[in-house]
Amino acid sequence: MVGWIALGIGVVVVLWVVAVYNGLIQLRVGADGAWSDISVQLKRRYDLIPNLVETVKGYAAHEQKVFIQVSEARSPTRSWSPSPERKARSNWPLSPGVARSAKP
Q1: pLDDT by residue (tens digit) across 27-82?
Q2: Model confidence pLDDT, tens digit, residues 72-83
Q3: Which of 45, 73, 101, 103 is within CB 3.0–4.6 Å of 93 for a Cys-Cys bond?
Q4: What is the C-alpha separation between 11 and 4, in angstroms, rounded?
Q5: Pseudo-torsion of CA 18, 21, 27, 29, nearest 10°?
Q6: DSSP sequence for 78-98
């Protein structure tokens, strides 16, 4: 009778060890999968950097063009005259650009 009890306890211990081992393996596989996902995202981000740089270069060229246009349009407004009509006329080239840049 004691032999059967010892055999039963032995079987339970072996099943418990197998279950714990399987759980640890499952956690390791999950961690490896998570690290793999991170690696994929980092590679994807790294591959997108050249596109971002080109986009910024294009936008910088556009901004430079707009800055030059605004500077050229503002230059007549630096010499204000007391005449409101002259002030309005000198600000006229700035109005469309300001309206375009104010739109979201």
Answers
A1: 999 999 999 999 999 999 999 999 999 999 988 888 888 888 777 766 665 665 55
A2: 766 665 665 556
A3: 73
A4: 10
A5: -90
A6: GS--S-HHHHHHHHTTHHHHH
**Amino acid found at 18:** V
Number of Cα atoms under 13 Å in the Cβ half of residue 43: 6
CA-nearest of 99, 98, 94 to 73 is 94
- SS3 state at 91: helix
**For the purposes of burial, counting CB atoms within 10 Å of the CB of 32, is it exposed (0-12), middle (13-18) or buried (19 or more)?**
exposed
Instruction: Give the domain ranges of the chain.
Output: 2-102
Q: Which two tokens stand for residue 32?
A: 């490896």
